[in-house]
Amino acid sequence: MRFTNYTKFSGNLADALNLESLLEQLSDFLLQSGFAGGAHQHPWWGTYEDGDADRSLDALKSALLRALLESGQLTPEMIAELRGEGDGDDEVRRRIAEMLDRLIERMVEEGFLNVGQGEAPRMPDGIAESTGRVDDAREASRQVEFSLTGKGIDFLGYRTLRGLLGAMGRSSFGSHDTPYLATGVEAEAASRPYEFGDVLNLDVSATLKSALAREGLRDDGTIGLDYGDIHVNQAEYRSSCATVLLLDTSHSMILYGEDRFTPAKKVALALTHLIRTQFPGDTLRVVTFGDRAEEIPTTRLAHAQVGPFHTNTAEGLKVARRILMAQNKEMRQIVMITDGKPSAITLPDGRVYKNPMGLDQRVLGETFQEVGACRKSGILINTFMLARDPALIAFVNQVTQIARGKAYFTSTMTLGQYIMRDFLRRKTRRAG
After folding, report:
1. pTM of the full predicted structure?
2. How far is CA 405 from CA 95, 270, 334, 389, in A?
């Protein structure tokens, strides 16, 4: 096995294309969720046929070609040049296949993707350069899977964040505001006399004014400066915040013709990039909840899937609260993204009690108990609803009353903007 030899033209064209722009266009495909466990039959939910997300090289090549055509990077003129004088359709297919192979190789070389066991993309010997049997090469590429690297995940988080902030009309962002004042770098309030322990962010004008008012200008033209004359600028105190993003992985997050989970993952990656680059004192952890709840690293987030699960909101809140209480932060919050009412709880013996019909009082009681525990621990719960089901609205209204949090009605198109506004501006629109 060895790399395919590319024609000079196809190689040059692939090298000239904007790889980062292509990756951004492919973000939905690269983060596609799929349904864990493949096709699933349930007496109430019916059958979901799409199964797991296709992460083969063949699927990636198809997505790349669509992105090239839709973005205009591969124009009809380029296709005509690829066709060449006297070339047949098979030759065009071969050249396009070589170009796509080269693009994937570039993604691997630049650290955005892993292919197979971390190897570069491979093709069966001699197929592209001699026989031209593109169908055989395609069959081979179906047997090789790709995955996003840490760099690829971070890049998609950055591009998603940039798009969200641009849509909100924000060109920059800063730290979390609190009502308190402290000495710091930014002068945002009146200065005050220096006290032991303050950052020596000297207010020169106020210091000199105090010295002159006390003693005036000396005969030799100097100013007598005393300890009490020193004034320092005040800045808004910046607090650190611990956030747990609580993602619903129940069946409804991808069934019924709409993928609600992939946009939620994109927001999580954008928040991760924002916190890492702009709020280094903050933390973001991700917890998924279906029948059970678990924390997942952001490196696994890109390939996380929903499944044939109920909605165990109580265990999700419990896991999130445990994570937050282990962190020494001044502000703690849970950002919960869901599209369904709670329908499951974990019993003391570890079994999961489920009831998807209506609002089960046993399930609600356990869930509200966890909400109350979060409030007692000083944890804010902000809920983002991806549906307008009356049972969900009733549940979320009660959560906001108990936890004194916030709730938003949103959609997959506006989810990211709402979460960013809440995270950056702390503004709210309550449900109900």
Report:
1. 0.67
2. 57, 22, 9, 20
